[in-house]
Specification:
- By secondary structure, the protein is mainly alpha-helical.
- Among the domains are: about 190 residues, Toll/interleukin-1 receptor homology (TIR) domain (Rossmann fold), CATH 3.40.50.10140; about 140 residues, no CATH class; about 60 residues, no CATH class.
- The chain contains 27 helices and 9 strands.
- The strands form 3 sheets. Strands 4-1-5-6-9 form a 5-stranded parallel sheet, sandwiched between helices. A two-stranded antiparallel ribbon has the order 2-3. Strands 7-8 form a two-stranded antiparallel ribbon.
- α10 packs parallel to α12, α15 packs antiparallel against α16 and α16 runs antiparallel to α17.
- The chain starts with about 30 loop residues before the first strand and ends in a 6-residue tail after the last helix.
- The relative contact order is 0.04.
- About 10% of the residues have low confidence.
Length: about 725
């Protein structure tokens, strides 16, 4: 299912814009209910609920973005009742629409096909802001018409997804309506109803939920008292017992609705602000509620909600670095979701919930450096995702889970250097992800995922020696990111992705012998970093990206003999690296920056003939490289070997043949045996073998590199 724009919860967003105090137009109706008459039963229910609703006294009279909060939502216009005696049906509807503050559209496949429902939306939008239109999903799927073969499931009338300008003219742009999902697998009727009310009043959903809870407590107290009196003065004990049982059942259902809110909307509000204590508090309260009940007697819904609470607390423990606690809680959560799946293995949502816990097993295993356990978890995650799609093939959310599973499995295989397997998974995910992103261009998560998978496809092509293919994919990724910026030039997340994308393309071009092309890409990447740092100069990630690019650019400039320019880049890059190291000397990426700084300074000094100074910098680069911990021991050993080769080259230039051979031999000793090598690793091994007189052993490697079109700067 697509993630829809939700009915706003104004009270808990960042500080909202100050409500306008200009006089608002007087409205005869608080809301206009638009629906297909095939949905009459649902319309009757919603109309009655809206007109019966009493605004909490604590909210009455408050000023919000939507005006002064009234005591009730009456009257709500419904054409079947209000226009029964009208002489001119069309004119009366237009007048009623103009006189209504809000339009509520009951969305279903029947509504999507109703030309009258669509016409009502168009008429209302021409005279009201987009925020005054709310959708209530009864059945079907939003945006299903975008999926070939699923058009019959579409529940949104066309006008609902079209944007109108302030003059009431259709712009041709697509918009996601503010929506509450009344379906059982969505918000449910009660929570969906409260979301609609909160959206119209301009208040937080939790304000209304608290009111509901208070109302229930009072009602339960009354029922308890009535039961005691009844037992004392009447003989209708059987009737009283039945009523009490029904009340308890209703109370449990409503309490579980509150729990669903705590684990859904409230959790989503707390996560972005990073309040771990608040998240922990939410999960703890939910578990306290369920701890008073026998888990084996829990309903299916309660069992799943208990598992979600456990998952939430596991997430908090993981963010705090308590991996053992996180693993225990995820296992407990998975036991609950596994039980729910066993009760009904045809329920795709249960499979989804269970898959999320399995995914976290994989993430924890990766964090602990256990790739085999991570692989096992990700394969199970993919199996569950495939099952979801088999049950609901038109559900975009489940289809996206399959691609996430492929990507995660591909990453863990890539990190095990099983490149061919990883590449197959990345390439298998690319087509479907691009299709999903095209189907829903407004979904930022899908667009980000498209850029990410393109990056992994390019990376896997590179390590397999397919340099030209990798270049083409990087170019596609950059073109896509630039297109995204045309829609929103201020999106820092897109600009952030552009930096490593251009840097990688620059490295690829350089390795294909196009050194000038590499310089161009490094320069463009640096421009993006400067734009970002003008927004937030203290962002350490952006500083690190800029410093890394500067040092790559310096390498190319040195090879072109442009030493003065290279010196400026080295000075700026190393200055930034030094500042970062001061913040945290233990950061792995910043240790690599330090090694690169010494390396570039050694090469610059060598270019100018200062061999003694060059040798000193090379010694420091070699020592620094020995402290690097990238997470891949093979990569770390090749880094040490590369700095050892540089030291040997400098000693040979200084006339110290024995010292040179000693450095090269020590470097060769660092190289792992029988490891599938990346192109630059193959080049490093071949160059070292040639330096110690083993050109015959190096020949197969140089031939493979030549077949790839690989060129080395040094």
């Amino acid at each position: 299912m697509l993630k829809l724009a939700q009915v706003q919860d104004y009270a808990h967003h960042a500080e909202p814009a100050r409500p306008s105090r200009a006089p608002r137009p007087q409205h005869l109706y608080y809301a206009f209910l638009s629906y297909s008459h095939k949905d009459k039963e649902d319309a009757d229910w919603l109309h009655d609920e809206l007109e019966r609703f009493r605004v909490p006294r604590s909210l009455e009279g408050k000023l919000t973005e939507n005006g002064v909060i009234p005591k009730t939502l009456k009257p709500v216009f419904r054409d079947r009742n209000e226009l029964a005696a009208a002489d001119d049906l069309g004119e009366e509807i237009r007048e009623a629409l103009a006189a209504s503050r809000f339009l509520i559209v009951l969305c279903s496949p029947d509504a999507a096909k109703s030309r009258w429902t669509n016409a009502e939306i168009e008429t209302f939008k021409r005279s009201h802001p987009d925020g005054c239109v709310l959708a209530a999903i009864l059945s079907g799927e939003p945006f299903a018409s975008d999926i070939p073969g699923s058009e019959h499931l579409e529940c949104f009338p066309p006008a609902l997804t079209h944007k109108y300008d302030r003059r009431g003219r259709a712009t041709g742009k697509r918009v996601e309506p503010l929506a509450a999902d009344l379906r059982d697998n969505g918000d449910g009727r009660r929570m969906g109803f409260l979301k609609l009310v909160a959206g119209m009043l301009g208040v937080g959903l939790d304000d209304l939920v608290q009111r509901e809870a208070t109302h229930r407590h009072r009602r339960l107290a009354w029922l308890a008292a009535a039961s005691v009196v009844g037992m004392a003065v009447t003989s209708g004990l059987a009737v009283t017992a039945i009523q009490a049982r029904d009340a308890a059942r209703d109370e449990r259902r409503e309490a579980e609705g509150l729990v669903a809110y705590m684990l859904g909307d409230l959790k989503e509000k707390l996560e972005p602000i990073g309040r771990l204590d608040a998240l922990d508090g939410v999960g703890s309260r939910v578990l306290a509620y369920y701890s008073k009940q026998d888990a084996s007697e829990l309903s299916d819904a309660a069992l799943l909600q208990r598992s979600r609470a456990l998952s939430l607390m596991a997430q908090v423990a993981n963010l705090r670095g308590n991996l053992d606690t996180a693993q225990r809680l995820y296992r407990e959560a998975a036991a609950g979701t596994a039980e729910a799946v066993e009760r009904d293995p045809t329920d795709a949502q249960r499979l989804f919930d269970h898959a999320q816990n399995i995914y976290h097993f994989g993430e924890l295993a990766r964090d602990r450096g256990d790739p085999k356990a991570a692989e096992t978890a990700y394969r199970e995650y993919k199996r569950l995702a495939d099952q979801m799609v088999a049950i609901e093939p038109d559900n975009l959310k489940y289809r996206m889970e399959v691609q996430y599973a492929r990507e995660n499995l591909g990453i863990v295989l890539f990190n095990q250097r099983r490149y061919a397997e990883a590449a197959a998974l990345f390439e298998g995910a690319l087509g479907p992800i691009e299709s999903l992103a095209a189907l829903d261009p407004q979904n930022s998560a899908y667009q980000r995922e498209r850029a990410t998978i393109l990056s992994w496809v390019a990376q896997s092509q590179w390590v397999l020696g397919r340099l030209d293919a990798a270049i083409r994919v990087r170019q596609r990724q950059i073109s896509f990111l630039e297109q995204q910026l045309k829609g929103d030039a201020s999106d820092v997340l897109v600009r952030e992705k552009l930096i490593p994308a251009r840097r990688s393309l620059g490295l690829l071009l350089t390795q294909r012998g196009n050194v000038e092309g590499g310089v161009e890409q490094f320069t463009l990447a640096l421009d993006e970093a400067h734009r970002l740092m003008s927004v937030e100069p203290t962002n350490s990630l952006w500083q690190e990206l800029a410093a890394t690019v500067r040092l790559e650019l310096a390498s190319n400039l040195i090879s072109l003999g442009r030493n003065e320019e290279a010196g400026r880049e080295v000075a700026a890059g190393c200055g930034a690296a030094s500042a970062l190291r001061t913040k945290d000397p233990s950061a792995a990426g910043w240790r690599t920056l330090q090694s690169n700084c010494f390396d570039r300074r050694a090469r610059l000094a060598l270019q100018s003939g200062a061999t003694a100074q060059s040798s000193a910098f090379a010694e420091r680069a070699l020592a620094s490289s020995r402290t690097e911990k990238s997470g891949d021991p093979v990569t770390d050993r090749y880094r040490v070997a590369a700095e050892g080769r540089l030291l040997g080259d400098i000693r040979q230039r200084a006339g110290d043949a024995e010292g040179a051979r000693s450095a090269w031999s020590a470097a060769i000793a660092q190289l792992p045996q029988n490891v599938a090598e990346r192109p630059w690793e193959m080049n490093e091994r071949a160059e070292l073998l040639k330096r110690v007189g083993r050109a015959h052993d190096a020949r197969p490697l140089t031939e493979r590199l030549a077949a790839m079109g690989y060129r080395s700067l040094r």
